[in-house]
Amino acid sequence: MIDKLDLRIPHYSVLRPFIEAYIRWGPSETYSSRVRPALHYLGKADLRPLGIDAILHIQCKHGEKDSKLEVLDVGKKPYSRIVNLVENVARVNPDELGIMRIDLTADVRGITVPWLKSHVRFKFKRTENEYGQLTYGLVGHGEVETILAGSRPNVFRIYNKTKECQFQFRRLQRRVSKDAEPLEFEKVFGLKEADILTRIERQCGGSRIPPEIARFSCLRNIPNFNPFNSLEIITSGQSNLPLPEECDGLEYYTGYGMHVEAQQMGMQEFRKKLNKQTKGNAARTLERYERFFPDGTDVPITLEQIIENFRQSTIEQLSA
Questions:
Q1: Mean pLDDT score, 127-148
Q2: Is residue 141 assigned to a domain?
Q3: Residue 305: what pLDDT?
Q4: I need a labelling partner for 166 at 20 to 30 A (CA). Which of 90, 133, 283, 310 fits?
């Protein structure tokens, strides 16, 4: 699914007259009530009061003075609605617009963030961070709710989508009038509060956007694009650790120690440290002791399944 989309509006583009009127402010004013301060732009305007679900960042202070159109709730919009939204803002051919940021996601059911922590590896990444607590809280004591790998503008995120929806739901409930019908979580988000749903997200921005998806016209081909090519899922095909009597010599104690370390720090960090200890032979060592990294009780998922989930969701989104 395409979950986030920022488009470059060239400086020579002509905005629709009602947009121009909406964002205009007087010569003696720094900003207006409709145009708020922005770090890298002259200002930013929320277009939702006009019925346009987007934020317009007006004229970058650097370079060509282009503007940026931040389309909101992209994941809930079919392709035709996104095209219509862009055309309502400016007299442009959407296909010719460059993409400034795009987030591509795949949802996996029945797989938890802690399971992925101990089985996922991000190839070619130099920085890794894990956050045990999101702004909306923890699922349980000690559980990692978000795994973050890479550095902006090229980032991978793995997070508990159900918990994020629960946080959004509580916020929606506070805004609902006391006289209105009570909200139902399943109707709002299309899943139950007890569901286990994890989202895997690839954020691309700036100069790090792959050329295959660098322009709006490329969106039609996104189902054939693999945003998770730097992701690796390490599984053993077995559910339990081997018994000591099933191992030779010190194999059990070595393998079990590796298993504990990987559980505590995650496969990404463990493999990095193992590479240092084995002088670059982490892959060979993990292959030798792979049965000490069981898949547990969760149903294992493969990278191919994740890619297929992404492909199917984008086909559905772009066909509407």
A1: 51
A2: no
A3: 93
A4: 310
Q: Give residue 136's pLDDT.
A: 35
Q: Which of 97, 126, 160 is the last residue of a domain?
A: 97
Tens digits of per-residue pLDDT, 140-153? 444 547 888 877 77
Residue with tokens 């918990």: 163
Q: How high is the pLDDT of residue 138? A: 39
Would you say residue 227 lies in a domain? no
Instruction: Measure the CA–CA gap between 49 and 42, rounded to whole angstroms.
Output: 20
Structure tokens at 43: 């200002």
CB 286 within 8 A of CB 271: yes
Inter-residue contact 7 to 67 (CB < 8 Å)? no
Length of the chain: 320
CA 197-114-299 angle, 5° bins: 60
Number of domains forming the structure of the chain: 2
Residue finishing a domain among 38, 66, 97? 97
Residue with tokens 């569901």, as numbered in its chain: 195
120 strand-pairing partners:
233
Edge-first strand listing for the sheet containing 146-151: 35-36, 41-46, 54-60, 67-71, 2-9, 99-109, 197-205, 154-160, 146-151, 128-131
**Residue 221: inside a domain, yes or no?**
no
Residue 86 · residue 19 · CB < 8 Å = no
Closest CA to 109 of 66, 162, 171: 162
Give dist(CA 176, CA 87) in Å, integer: 32
The mean per-residue pLDDT over the stretch 124-128 comes to 54
Whether residue 10 is contained in a domain is answered as yes
**Tell me, what's the pLDDT at 257?**
93
Parent domain of 267? 244-292
